[in-house]
Write a structure and sequence with these properties.
The protein is about 40% helix and about 10% strand. By secondary structure, the chain is an alpha/beta fold. The chain has a single domain, classed as Thiamin diphosphate (ThDP)-binding fold, Pyr/PP domains (Rossmann fold). Strands 1-2-3-5-4 form a five-stranded parallel β-sheet, sandwiched between helices. A two-stranded antiparallel sheet has the order 6-7. A hairpin with a 2-residue loop joins strand 6 and strand 7. Helix 1 packs antiparallel against helix 2 and helix 2 runs parallel beside helix 3. It starts with 11 loop residues before the first helix and ends in a 21-residue tail after the last helix.
Length: about 375
């Protein structure tokens, strides 16, 4: 696992907060894709608890949940005004799960409380008749476009940063999305960003290796080539690579260090430009930081299904266990998968979010 050499102030308590939030968001995401009942697994999982038709995208969701947790930490500890733009819009379960955990979902949809019935409805409505789509859609808090049409996230991020000097826009770019024409062109937008008067965009290129059925181009490139490519576009990449899926604590430390380093560098670039007054034209503007995050597709999901590898492959893209009602082994795997997040530690007996989760939830307008 490689990452920036910058130190971070990530304490053991904050590490536990990050991991707890990530587990909770992953649990809620899997529940949305699969369950219509038994949301807290109070009884052994049975076929009637699972939706008859399974539709959703798991592969990118766990990475989005991971990044979201870390951005929350930055918002709280730095009192940073931040906007989260997610390019992989088909990772809809992540956006809903995190909005629910921080309380935003219940503020908008007041029928959702903090109890077991609300969890049941949260799961049941996802990709279900009369419910919500599987993509990030207008029903998703904060969504401005239908999430199945990829390629526009970075352009939206720069548009939000222009003339907003205090704002940092963290933009997750999926590696399949990065192959689209609009996204490939949008990297050039740093040419228009003025650190004296504008906010900043922090691109987070999420390389999980695969599209729906094929490897992705940038993920196949060695790190040195990726570095040189983005340096040529005006960026200074920080790399966080998850080589061992089980080394989750180290992944949190590495990503936290890279994120802190990037935010410090953004602040330094802006400070230098603003102290100098009107920026003089320069043929060599300072490179802006970005993060290249390599993690397994479908991280923390089933490693194998029916003897075939899933985690870290294209098979994790949508629904890893798709024959729940026909195959008892799939049902048992789903239950083991969901219990691996230890929901009894994340939610109270009544289904409320554990008090510890609130430590990583931004409050008020920062949420």
């Amino acid at each position: 696992m490689t990452a920036t050499d910058a130190a971070t102030t990530l304490t053991d308590e904050r590490l536990e907060d990050l991991h707890r939030w990530w587990r909770a968001a992953n649990y809620l995401s899997v529940g949305q894709i699969y369950l219509r009942d038994n949301p807290l697994l109070r009884e052994p999982l049975a076929g009637e608890h699972v939706k008859a038709r399974l539709l959703g995208h798991w592969g990118t969701t766990t990475g989005l949940n991971f990044i979201y947790a870390h951005l929350n930490r930055a918002i709280i500890e730095r009192e940073q005004a931040m906007l989260f733009v997610t390019g992989p819009g088909h990772g809809g379960p992540a956006n809903v799960a995190n909005a629910y955990l921080e309380g935003t979902y219940s503020e908008i949809y007041t029928r959702f409380g903090d109890d077991e019935d609300s969890l049941r409805e949260l799961f049941r409505q996802f990709s279900y008749p009369g419910g919500i789509p599987s993509h990030a859609a207008p029903e998703t808090p904060g969504s401005i476009s239908e999430g199945g049409e990829l390629g526009y996230s970075l352009a939206h991020a720069f548009g939000a940063a222009f003339d907003n000097p205090d704002l940092v826009v963290a933009c997750v770019v999926g590696d399949g999305e990065a192959e689209t024409g609009p996204l490939a062109t949008s990297w050039q937008s740093t040419a228009f960003l003025d650190p004296a008067h504008d906010g900043a965009v922090l691109p987070i290129l999420h390389l999980n290796g695969f599209k729906i059925a094929n490897p992705t181009v940038l993920a196949r490139r060695p790190e040195d080539q990726v570095r040189k490519y983005f340096e040529g576009l005006g960026y200074a990449p920080r790399f966080v690579t998850v080589a061992d899926p089980s080394a989750q604590a180290q992944a949190h430390r590495d990503f936290a260090a890279a994120l802190d380093d990037c935010l410090e560098e953004i602040a330094a670039i802006q400070r230098r430009a603003r102290e100098a007054g009107e920026r003089a034209p320069s043929s060599t503007p300072e490179p802006w930081p970005m993060i290249v995050f390599r993690s397994p597709k479908g991280w923390t999901g089933p490693a194998t299904v029916d003897g075939k590898p899933v985690e870290g492959t294209w098979r994790a893209h949508q629904v890893p266990l798709s024959a729940i009602h026909e195959n008892p082994e799939h049902l048992a795997q789903l239950e083991a998968w969901m219990r691996s997040y230890r929901p009894e530690e994340l939610f109270t007996h009544d289904g409320a979010r554990s008090p510890e989760l609130s430590r990583l939830a931004p409050a008020g307008t920062a949420a």
